[in-house]
Each structure stands twice: as structure tokens, then as C-alpha cells.
Design goal:
The protein has helices spanning 5-12, 16-23, 31-44, 50-57, 73-87, 102-110, 160-173, 192-206, 224-237, 249-261, 295-310, 330-333; strands at residues 62-67, 92-97, 119-122, 141-144, 154-157, 179-184, 216-218, 243-246, 271-273, 290-292, 319-321, 325-327. The chain is an alpha/beta fold. A six-stranded parallel β-sheet has the order 2-1-3-4-5-11, with helices on one face. A four-stranded parallel β-sheet has the order 7-6-8-9, sandwiched between helices. A two-stranded antiparallel ribbon has the order 10-12. Strand 1 (62-67), helix 5 (73-87) and strand 2 form a beta-alpha-beta unit.
Amino acid sequence: MAVTMRDVAREAGVSPKTVSNVMNGYPYIRAETRTRVLAAIDALGYRMNLSARNLKSGRTGVIALAVPELTNPYFAELADAAIAAAGEHGLTVMIETTGADRERELTALARPRGHLVDGLLYSPLGLGPDDVDELNTSTPMVLLGERIFHGPVDHVMIDNVEGTKAVVRHLLDQGRRRIAVIGVRPGEKIGTAAIRYDAYAETLTEYGVPVPTELTVSGGSWHRSSGADAIAELLASGQRFDAVLALNDVLALGAIRALTARGIRIPDDVAVAGFDNIDEASYSTPTLTTVDPNRVHIARTAVELLVQRMAGDTSEHRELVAPYALHARESTVGAN
């Protein structure tokens, strides 16, 4: 005979309602009670009948996460953090990638979701302010990233401005004055590259250091190969530089490889810094100075906001900025 929720409740010494609350990730349960219920579930081998639950509640217990790509470690690690955060609420995450392509991002928004997921965490790169009306969908949504501001949905953001200023100040305080920047996207008015570049230029100006536009290198894709190519371009130009600010970590890792392959010492000859604090930054040679945008905080906050909206919260939409941290490592300060 199949184990029922009542069997679990009897084993744990609680009510069936309490078992249901634990299974559905209800937050206001004493830790001791939750542990006892989970132990009873494990001991009896109970499995919730999801189909029955979904028919009764109208919920699937699944949320979607749409990101540009998973080959970029930042998005892969963000997805991992979102899965962990969703698990705390008893939710499963379905991941889809959009390739940072505007049409694919619009398709992801337009796709009927009611019978598949209860909500959407959405991180676009191809959309812009003119697409704000596209966010008016029937599916509860939380926006991630820097493409659309002041939209009709909750938005959790990286502190790109202050984070970039912090790392540029760090380079300046190390005595660097010819700071190249790689990964710029010419013509971009809004987006991560534009925000970080503007913060870089503003910080140099605050220090009375001329902005070296000749040391600006564009990069269509923020991958390691683009970082290596940017260094090759800088060196071929004959321009002198004593630091490189890469607009993300994988660009920085490509830059480190290209510099060391040419016998350029890091940080003695050229300091290198990135942004994102991907896991690899702590294990590269040298280890990478970078800005930690706090992916765990972003994921947990976004999931919590989404859960509230899924539960019927109709309060004013919020724009929240995650706290950042600067990690100064060997690529700018040398080995300890």
C-alpha cells in the first residue's frame, strides 16, 4: 500500500497540514519540526503526488530561468544559485537560454507558460528600453540584469557603478595611471558594458587622470578569446599601458593568458582586474582581482520576490541593487 501524507504525519507526530507545509517549502516552520517531518518522509519513502497537487492548487511547483547562455560562467553560477534558492521554497527551476538574441528573448516572453511554470526569472541582453511593454505578461516575473529599467516588474540588479568605481580606485591607488579597458561595446547606450565603462571613465576623471580613449578595446562577446584578442590589439598598437580593466572575468582570464604568453609580468608590468568573481578567479595564475556582484544574494532576492508575486502580491514593483565586494588578489597586488 502506498504511503500517504497521513502516514508521515503520524510518524512525525504532527498534523497532515504541517507535513504539507514542509513539502511546499512554507517558511514559518520550526527547524525541529521540519527536521522531524523530513526524517519521517525519508524513513517511510513518501513521495508527494505532484499531479494531484498541481490539479488542486493550479500550481506546477516549477519556475523558469531565462539567461543568455550557460557557457559564460557568470550565468552558469547564477543558475546554480537560483536553483538552490528555489529549492528552499520547494520549487524546481527550468532553465532556457536565449543566446542574447533579441528575437529569441522576445519569443521567450511570448511563449505560453501557464501550464508549465508558475513564474519567470528573466535576464535579457538583447532587449532595450523600447521593449518595456513586452514585460507585461500574465506570468509573474522578476527581471535580472541591466537592460530595462523602471519596467512593470520587480528588478534585481548588480551594483555596476559602485563596483566598477571600487576596482578602478584600487588600480589607481596601486599607482596605475594608464588603465586599458577591454570589452567595451561602441554605441551601446544602456547595458552592462556601457554602465561599467562610464563608471571607469568617471573614476579616472575624479582622480584627475585623463581618460585614455586610445586604450579602449571593444569586444562583441565577453569570452576568453575576446580578452586575448584585445591584448594582442593593444600591444600591436604600440600604446603603453600599466593596467587592464576587463569588463568581466572571462575577458580578464583571456587577457592574463595573452600577457603571460608574451613574457609580460602580472602585476609587475601590467595589473589585471575583472568583474563577476566567478569561481575560476580564485584559482587562476595569478589569482584574479575582481568585483563580486553577490550572485547568491541576487538569486535569493529574485526568487523571494517571485514567490511573493506568485502568491498574489500586487504591491508596487521594486528595483533592488545587490551589495558588491571587491576582492584584491595577485593580479593587482602580487602574491602575499
